Every structure is written in structure tokens, then in C-alpha cells.
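Sample 3 of the quickstart, ligand octanoyl-coenzyme A:
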Amino acid sequence: MSITAIITGTGLYTPPASISNEELVDAFNTYVERFNQRHEAEIARGELEPLQPSSVEFIEKASGIKSRHVMDKEGILDPDRMCPNLPDRSNDEPSIQCEMSVAACREALEQAGRKAEDVDAVIVACSNLQRAYPAIAIEVQEALGIDGFAYDMNVACSSATFGIQAAANAIENGTARSVLVVNPEICSGHLNFRDRDSHFIFGDACTAVLVERSDEVAPDQGFEILGTRLKTKFSNNIRNNFGFLNRGDESGIGKPDKLFVQQGRKVFKEVSPMVADLILAHLESLSMSADDLKRMWLHQANLNMNQLISRRVLGREATREEAPVILDEYANTSSAGSIIAYHLNKDDFSSGDLGVICSFGAGYSIGSVVVKKR
Ligand code: CO8
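Result:
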């Protein structure tokens, strides 16, 4: 019997604090008013453009986002600060990404009926890592008490599906029997809350999936990974130039490109067809068609984008049941998004039902994971 990889459990850590569009726009518009007042003379002389206010109606219409969970609410909503207040911790304390990861992993283990001793490897896969080393994954491994190996990886919003492929590879080639893939996303840490075009896009959350060898799992347990397909294509349309070399260019340290920046319209237009084509090609390579799918757990960046992608894949509008949306409550949580959708919308699957987890984002990068309920 050939060994395949099975997703046996998922976990989600949701930060308790949440910010509504109304609260976010209120703080942003207070900042805009104060900025314009402070620069009244330059604006009157035509030397400076006044800042434009944000709007709740625009945000909901353009993105489908109604609120977002965050690790710290007060700092973000303070018009004099507009960034989360996340104080540094001593080296003896667990890091904030480790803490989120442990919570999500514990839920995934419990769902799978496993203990940390049953796990061989931890992959932390996310858009932003709070330090270079030691790896957050190794810290998570230590906190959970796992005897094995761990490493961090980053493919922006596609980190979770790329991480699942790495886990499936490890299982199929025999280097691990059981792998936790964790996505601790603190997007608020690298979001420019003073930028009207993007201040509303992201939220924070952490997801985890446990991937195990088929011969160690009950025959009716979990979702079998039938196949994975990854694609990357370089683009400057989503960038974050924050990095360890910034210190070497003192003139550039405070520039906005050290935070998330994007050409949202271009991303929308270029990425949506690439995603639909990749899903269709992936299904075809597995001798399947879109009609065989019960559900698409898509990356959650923009509601209109997801509707366009599912329309191109199915050839008709998808129902909320076929392409669930968690954007309204969570906003874009980068790599965690498609896994939150999967975590919250998979319990109604019967044996043989098929679905695809698909993420996409900066790079560009796209990852597709086709699964079958056992
Ligand atoms: N309020 C009111 N008006 C606004 C606002 C606002 N907040 N923002 C923009 N406008 C105005 C614009 O100025 C523009 O006005 P005008 O027509 O006069 O020029 C008008 O509204 C329309 O603006 P856009 O064309 O920009 O609006 P869109 O309809 O394109 O919507 C979106 C903007 C929502 C950004 C949309 O383009 C989108 O979602 N695109 C896809 C984005 C995407 O998927 N990005 C992927 C990023 S994720 C990733 O991989 C990165 C990982 C890093 C994560 C962590 C970092 C924090």
C-alpha cells in the first residue's frame, strides 16, 4: 500500500480584540484632520495635497471586509500612533508568534486525537517572522515538547499551501511521520495604518494543520491530500522591503516601502486569472473537473476577487457554501486565510467529498491542495 499524506486536524487562534470598519475609519479620519490642520498653510499655498478621508462604504464595497481581529487594538486606533503596541519580550519568555502557534497547534492535535510526542516536525510558514533566528518553529517545537526537527519558511500569503506541500513531501519520502504546519500571521505589524489605500486590508490570526502518514491513521479519519501544485512568478506589485540590510541605508529606514505596499488593482487583475487557471490545470492533472468539487477554500484577500476566481473555475456564480467567506470577520490574514475557511467549513464533508484549498499573494505565488474526505 502506498503512503499518502492525510490532514487529520486543524486549529485556529483568533486574537480576542477586534476592530470594526467604523472604528478604523474614525481613527484614520482623525489622523487626516489633524494632519491637514497641521499643514494648513502648505496646503493653502498649493505646496502639499491634503490627505483624503477613508470611508466605511468604500471598504465594504471594494473588499467585503467588515472587521478584523488584531493582537493590539489600542495602538492601532490611537491617531498619534497608528501601529500595534507589542512590547519586546525577554529571551526567557515565549515570543508572541510562538504563543499564537502553540494555541493553534494544541487545537489541531486535539482534533486529530494526537499528543505532541506523536509529532516529528514543525514548519512555521507565514508572511512575517518577528526575528531571523533561532527559528520560531524551533521555539514552538520546544514549547510543545516535540522530539524532531523544525524550520521557518515564507512565501507570503501562499505560505500555508507551500508548507502543506513540504509536509506532504516529508511524509511521502519518509523523513517524518507527522508534521505540524503553523501560520502565525501578525499582519498588523507590517501594515501602514496611515495609508488610505491599504489601512483596512489585514488582520491577525494563527492557523495550524496536522499532516500524518496514511498508514498511522484510521481509514475514515481526516482528508487525504490527493495532490499539490505550486506556482510563482516575480512581480513588484506587492512588496515589503523591510529587512536586515535596512540598517546599511540610513536614509531609507523610515520610508513607507519598509511596510506592506501594493498596486491593488493590478494584483486583482493579474492574479485572479492565474489562480483560476492553476486550479483548473491542477484538477485536470488529477483527472477531475470543477464539477467534482464540493468546496473551494480560497485565500481571503478580497470578496470580489474570490467571486471572480470561483466564477472562472465553475463557469457560474459560486454559493457561499461552495466558496466560504471569512473575510468579513477576519479581513486578509495572509497565509492563515484559506486555512481559517477550511477549519470552519469542513465538518459537513462525507466520505469521498472533494475540495481544494488555494492560496495566492505576493511573489506572485499560488498554491493549490486538492483533498478528499476519507
Ligand atoms: N476610502 C475611500 N476611498 C478610497 C479608499 C478608502 N479607504 N482607498 C482608496 N480609495 C479610492 C481611491 O483613491 C480611488 O479613487 P479614484 O478613483 O478617484 O482614483 C478609488 O477609491 C478606487 O481605488 P482602487 O482602484 O484602489 O480600488 P479597488 O476597487 O481596486 O479596491 C483593493 C482596492 C481592495 C485593494 C483591491 O484592489 C484588492 O483587494 N486587490 C487585491 C489585493 C490583494 O489580493 N493583495 C494581496 C496582498 S496579500 C500578500 O500576499 C501580501 C502578504 C503580506 C501580509 C502582511 C502585511 C501586512
